[in-house]
Amino acid sequence: MIENRNPSMKAMAVLIPGIFLSFSFDIVTPLIYLLYILAITFFLANIPLKRWLLIFMPLSLFAISLAWMTMLYTDESYATGDVVFKFLWFEITTGSAEVGISLALRSLCFIALSLLFVFTTNPTNFMLSLMQQCKLSPKLTYGILAGYRFLPTLQHEFELLKQAHRIRGISRAEGWKNRIQNMKQYAIPLLANSIRKAERVAIAMESKGFTGERERTYYHQMKINRNDWIFLFGMISALIVAYYTSYELGYLNIFGNEVGR
């Protein structure tokens, strides 16, 4: 299962194809790779479909709107071919439509890759992997982890402050200007509590012997095994297959330059 893969290797398996996929301006390459991502998402990962769709669908609407704007304002060097249809004073050509659809498919690939990583990766394990495998500074790593742990408590304290204001008879502000003004009443107490907690965490870490040195032992050992390399190789190989298929079909387009047969 993808959940068991090393987080750093998983990040590379998502980042490397994402970078090389951005070079493709055709439709076939991102379409093939999108189908591959969806296949491994639902067959090799334990991700609830409803939860996945709840995030994917709004982001996909953003990708579609971005593609539509690209069709309307495509550069003249890409707006080639016959006119497909007209919208107001805009002319949508086959070239601009291809660029827009390609952008939408690439955006959907980026969204699917991001969701695959987020839904199958434990944040704590990811930071530990970055520290052990990628040699990230322990000071930076544990600082990020501490900040991540503070987020739920910060939200809870914000709710407590709002309830305390209601008990004291402070009415809710109406209008954006008044709401922004009232937010200043919450900022200082939240900042003060955050500073106190940060000091307590720093003292606790020092009392436990934390010095920030890279040469240290770990209770949770993150390792890279053969299956991690297979997953990385599979993600990159799928992109190579998508490029090769697009080339054989004569659709491959790199930065507006057709290189297909």
Automatic annotation (TrEMBL):
Q: What is its main location?
A: membrane
Task: Identify the keywords attached in UniProt to this record, alphabetized.
Answer: Membrane, Transmembrane, Transmembrane helix
Q: Where do the TM regions start and end?
A: 12-45, 52-73, 99-119, 229-247
Decide whether keyword Membrane is in the record: yes
**A Pfam short name:** CbiQ
- What is its membrane topology? Multi-pass membrane protein
Q: Which organism is it from?
A: Oceanobacillus kimchii
Give the top-rank taxon of the lineage listed in the UniProt record for this protein. Bacteria
Q: What is this protein called?
A: HMP/thiamine permease protein YkoC
Q: Does the keyword Metal-binding apply?
A: no
Query: Where does it reside?
Result: Membrane
